[in-house]
Amino acid sequence: MIKRMMLNKTWLRRLLLSYVTVFLFIVPLLLFILLLGFGDMSRKTAVESNAIYAKQVLQSLDNQMQLIDNTITNEVATDETLFGFFNQALRDERYYSGYLPSLKVSRLMASMPLIDSIYLYRLSDDKVQTPYSVDTLDSFVDKQVIVEALKQPNLNHSWLNVRKGYTEQRQVADFLSLVRYVPLNSGNDGLIVVNVQVQSIIRFVHSLMPVESNHIRLNDRVGTPIYQGSGDEGLIMTELKSDYSGWTISSGLENGNAFRFVSTMSDYWLIVCLIFFIIGLLWIVVAARINYKPIQSIIQRFQMFSQQKSAELFRKGAQDDFKFIDSALDHLMEQFNAYHKQHEEDLIYKRKHFFFEWIEGNGPLKLEKWQQEMNSLGLPFEFASLCVSVIEISKYGRFTNSYTPQDQNLLKYILASVVKEMADTRNVTSWAEWTSNDQLTVVFHIPTALMEEKSESLIMDLSDKLCRWVGTNLDFDIAIGISSGIDLIELIHDAYNEALKALQYKPSLGQKSVIGYWQIPSVGKQQPLDLLQYIRAMAFSYRTGDSAWLDHFERLFEEMRLGLYTREELSNLMSYLIFFLQKELTELPSDLKTLWTGDALAKLQKSVDGWDSLDELQQELHLILAEFANVMKELRQNNSHYLLIRSIKEYLEEHYANPDLSLLHLSEEFHVHMKSISRLFKEEIGENFIDHLARIRIEHAKELLLRTDCSIQEITLKVGYLHPNTFIRSFKKLVGQTPGDYRKEIRVRQSG
């Protein structure tokens, strides 16, 4: 019995050694080769993905650099504000040759974040102006790029190669520069230099990299590195060159060695797999034949027992097989869920990217290609009409201060979900994406079944309901701009701009939350010069302590409401208001000027930057200006000189028609020396006696021209002038046109 048990164990060990050796040798090799096969497929997929990614990065860079190039070229060709810097006739007018071009450059830099700095160089006097300074070319710290540009025989090249330059803080940095000559066809007046820091390009490329597995290297036309990813260079799989900039991008994978190994083995793994399969098969056959003979007799003698035992072993093995299959299925489901989650995240990114490309109008888009793209993203593409609305969170600064970032994201998600639910209730398909921190852009696909109702009316009704829902359920307000309906996908960019433009009129429309583009009047707007006259008159009256400044202030806002201006236009007018107030009040005595620059000016600037409606802006500005006006009044009343000047002003207002009015006349009337009166006029009012008297006479002349039919000769005598030519020269100097032209313009405007 003991010998039989030992014999059975011996045969068991022989069988195990025969077949387990085959299993331990052949199966791992087959698994390894199988993994190489999967690795080869992964390599091919990685190569294709890497090529697409490199092309996308290069195209995005070209789009950004071309946008800067086209914008600057267009501004040089058409914008009169920049031309004021190069115009020799306006060189001494600091407002037109300095302030306005500087303001324009700052806005260009704000609209294109990649731009680090812009230099304006005037050839006539070697002046260089940046948004923050004006200097001569010889003393300008970053003059090398201008000097080299002046030596170029050809005009208006593409982007220069990487160069060393200086920032506004005089720090050395690498730049990519664009030079545009003024005018474009000759460069006789000067040039404009646009600088983009290489660090800005690096940050932009980083924003396009969803994972760190790709290695990117970007060089300029001469091979100077612009961007080079961290870590090993890896395996270079794609190299592209831009037709626009001449830059070269090389892209590969960080783990290049593994892919080289897989690439080498991919050509031989099928042959190796077949060889090992044949070896394993022969091994099994040989082992089976060797082991078959010794145990044949035992099988015959114990056939029944062996059959029963085999059945038990089979059942036991079946249980283990199912357990393995169950474990494998669980693992497979986990992998599937992980892949599905990654796929959903990629799909969200692709949808948002395509949405931006579509509404921004980046490149031509045909209907068939658009339908294919929409179908691949799992989005419906059937429509009879399209309509775009832009939903803006009002007072966004207050919104961000009131909620944490997590709560802000939750509220934005709720708002987007409510838009979709309301559209679904009307059988309208909607596609909504946050195009900026405070703006949600929605494209509505209106089906043929709803075309009996005008698409604009349908979206207007949905927007009204959305505004009411937000007002009832959320603690912030929204405003909605709606475009006209379109039936071509190529017009979506125009529709998007219409919705944005409609939103721009929100400040002028007061409490109106839903604004259709078709509701914006195309006529009736005041000319900017008309409003500038109110601003100048108000600034002058405010400086001199005349209460008439409040009338000019109220009239200014009244005209702005009647004019129906966009937010940008209103912001520009408020910038002009602050500029003229600052210009006038710099003539004040030092104590008043210190109070103005120290407190009131900062409050004004803060109000102008953070307003939401004209009513709100008017109320805040009125409080600030009235408060400072009272301070000026109290300080002036304690000044005996001011009381004297005030009496003289009242005397001038009463006797302006006297042609003998002069400093000598006032000296005799008030028993004060002429030089003292002249000095006090300049100190307390900010202008000399002659200019002040001329301003009073011209203001009265304007009233006579407006309200009477008196001739120019009669008006000349009534306002204190002896000769019409003197009167006409003074009138044109202050008003900008002759008395006759002024009367005609006013009467034409009144009749219209």
TrEMBL record:
It comes from the Bacteria. The keyword Transferase does not apply. This is Uncharacterized protein. Keywords: DNA-binding, Transcription, Transcription regulation. Signal peptide: none annotated. It holds the Pfam family HTH_18. GO terms for molecular function: DNA-binding transcription factor activity; sequence-specific DNA binding. The keyword Cytoplasm does not apply. InterPro entries: Homeodomain-like_sf, HTH_AraC, HTH_AraC-typ_CS, Tscrpt_reg_AraC-type_HTH.
